[in-house]
Amino acid sequence: MGKHSIFATPALAAAMAPADAGEVVVEKDQPGQPHKGKVFAAVHAHLDDVPHYAGGLCAKLLREGYTGYIIRTSNDEKCGGQTTATNILSNEQEHLKMAAALGFRDVFDFYYQNHEMDGISALDIRGRLIFLFRLLKVDTVLSFNPWGHGEENPDHWVTGRAVEEACWMCGMPNDFHEHREAGIQPHPVLERYYFYGRPGQPFNRVVDISSHLEKKIDAIVECKSQGGGNLGSQLRARLARERRRLTLLGNDDRTADREYVRQFLLDDDREYGKPHNLAYAERFYYLDQRRPAKSKVDDYVEKNAVSL
Ligand SMILES: [Zn+2]
Predict the structure, then answer these.
(1) Residue 109 burial (10 A CB sphere; 0-12, 13-18, 19+)
(2) What residues flank ion ligand 1 with Cβ within 5 A?
(3) CA of 156 to the centre of ligand 1 (A)
(4) Other beta carbons within 10 Å of 68
(5) Which of 79, 104, 113, 138 could pair with 226 as two cysteines, CB 3.0-4.6 Å apart?
(6) Ligand 1 centroid to residue 45 C-alpha, Å
(7) Helices and strands (H and E) in the chain: how many
(8) Structural domain boundaries of the chain?
(9) Model pTM score
């Protein structure tokens, strides 16, 4: 059992962890900036994916010293309730505001056609991700589980698979070798956090986001074209027309939106926290492919090599 384990016995851990996901580890706040110098990329398909699935983890990693970049793969043209062109614009503008609310260093949009990403070239999106992971020297990614159970949205699994493929290939010098001619070196991505996107997906990490909740709410309220960010102010306006009000929603739109999110849109985060006595938590399938400084071969050579 790892030292961070929350379970009394390995058997109990096995009982609570989904098959093949390994032991569930609770990741809590770390003091100082232990991740200073490291870079993560959050790769999602739609404006509201990262804020809802991983807004708390993003805020935590940034507070603990990571530099963060966010990549949106679709153009979100189907969501926003307006014409296609207007939807693309509103989602693009809100994506910038949402990223600023969480504290990302920069924002990238790939603009693949929304809901139709299963028709795009797998090689094209993989190549674009490899370029960015190398350029930005990404150490860690956050994205969809590439083999996610119950995933009905092709934009999600297409993005997840491309991310998984790009993570190891961007460390291979002969893949897109022309990047080196441009001074962009191979750089493998060794840590991954896959979202818990649908019920039944595997997870082996529960991140305590309790102290980052206000940042997560800051991000969600910027998601107005989709993601429920303006439902509070809409409800407040409707009630006013009916000459009613809710104390919960306060006296201005900003408060209404924030408190609506807190009251109605964070049920999952509260549920995920409960088994671990946390107020709010997010779930992930975490993979760590960092190798020990000394390999088992090095170790064997050191112990057994004799002089000629
Ligand atoms: Zn989505």
Answers:
(1) middle
(2) 45-46, 49
(3) 6
(4) 23
(5) 79
(6) 6
(7) 11, 8
(8) 23-211+283-291
(9) 0.91
Per-residue pLDDT of the chain (308 residues; tens, 9 = 90+): 333 333 444 444 444 444 466 789 999 999 999 999 999 999 999 999 999 999 999 999 999 999 999 999 999 999 999 999 999 999 999 999 999 999 999 999 999 999 999 999 999 999 999 999 999 999 999 999 999 899 999 999 999 999 999 999 999 999 999 999 999 999 999 999 999 999 999 999 999 999 999 999 999 999 999 999 999 999 999 999 999 999 999 999 999 999 999 999 999 999 999 999 999 999 999 999 998 788 899 999 999 999 99
Residues contacting residue 261 through CB under 8 Å, at least 6 positions apart: 217, 220, 221, 228, 229, 231, 232
- 269 contacts 282 by C-beta, under 8 angstroms: yes
Quote the DSSP letter at residue 150: T
CA dihedral 246, 252, 253, 254 (to 10 degrees): -110
DSSP, residue by residue, 39-95: EEEEEESSTTHHHHHHHHHHHHHHHTT-EEEEEEEE--TT-SSS-HHHHHHHHHHHH
CA of 137 to the centre of ligand 1 (A): 26
Superfamily of domain 23-211+283-291: LmbE-like (3.40.50.10320)
- Compute, in angstroms, the gap from residue 49 CA to the centroid of ligand 1: 5
What is the spatial distance between Cα 177 and Cα 165, in angstroms, rounded to a whole number?
A: 16
Please name the amino acid found at residue 32. G
Closest CA to 42 of 152, 208, 195, 149: 195
